[in-house]
Amino acid sequence: MLLESVIGHRGCAALAPENTLAGIRKAHELGISAVEIDVVLTADGQLVIHHDRTVKRCTDGRGEVLSLTLEQLQQLDAGSWFAPEYAGEKIPTLKDALLLIQQLRLKLNLEIKMHRHAPEQLVEPVIGQLQQCWSDTRNLVISSFDHQALKLCHQLAPEYNIGHLFETLPSDWEAMAAAVHARSIHVCHKKHKTAQAEAIKKAGYELYVYTVNHTDNADHFFNIGVDGLFSDEPHLISPPAETK
Ligand code: G3P
Ligand code: MG
Question: Which residues pair with 162 in a beta bridge?
């Protein structure tokens, strides 16, 4: 399997501040063996781990990530908003996250968030950083909602596994997945239908569903052939019997 049947979403978003090194450590402490994190580009061309376009929700600062420098971003507190014991937690660089994830021997789904950047602005440095810092391509899936970004990923580095993210599965999903040489399809749990799962699996792709935070739903998804679930509370999800 490319990833795992249970994947910590944004690290372990229900139990530690999302997209932080503390969140990645929390997932590992709970025995989770794969995490998903989001990568974005700063004003000065650096790569950091963050989900939103702005820093308002998950730090004590204001403004858009793309108009703040790495130095400005690293002055922010990315932990206090979540809980006092995480005060002082920083927005991590992609490099620091990659090093920690490998040190903990976790698999990684790196989601590229474009926000308002052009694909080449973000994809080229992401691939460069991965080629410099990530040693085992088997333990990595790069994903994005941005089709052009995924195309460029494959052109620049065909050795990486690609996951095509969709919010709603389009009718031409198979052509889109083939165009980026995807190995997996990642879909939203709210809009997912059993027939689609069957079609995706039949076409030979691994199938991952985000973001599943209830154990009942988890059983349903495993029963219809989903390979893995992204969860904010991954420790509450029991993997299907054969992978336990
Ligand atoms: O990669 C799965 C999931 O993280 C996609 O949605 O908005 O949580 O990044 P989002
Ligand atoms: Mg994500």
Answer: 142
